[in-house]
Specification:
Elements: H1 6-10, E1 20-21, H2 22-31, H3 36-43, E2 49-50, H4 53-60
Helix pairs in contact: 2-3
C-alpha cells in the first residue's frame, strides 16, 4: 500500500471513536469525503480492531 500517505488518510478519520474496526474506519472516511484511493487503502486494512489513529497509519504504511 506504500503509495498512500498515512497523514492524508488521517484527514478523513476525524470523529472516529477508537477502538474501531476496519468497517467503521472505512465508513467514517466515506462520511468525511475521502476519495476512492483512500477508501481502497482502508478497505485493504486487516480485518481487526484498531486502537487509535497511529495503529491505522502503521497498517497503511
Amino acid at each position: 500500500m506504500g503509495q498512500i500517505n498515512p497523514i492524508q488518510v488521517q484527514k478523513y478519520l476525524h470523529g472516529v471513536d477508537y477502538p474501531c474496526d476496519r468497517d467503521g474506519i472505512v465508513e467514517a472516511a466515506r462520511s468525511n469525503g475521502a476519495d476512492a484511493t483512500v477508501i481502497d487503502a482502508l478497505e485493504d486494512l486487516p480485518d481487526r480492531t484498531f486502537n487509535g489513529p497511529n495503529a491505522v497509519s502503521e497498517a497503511i504504511a
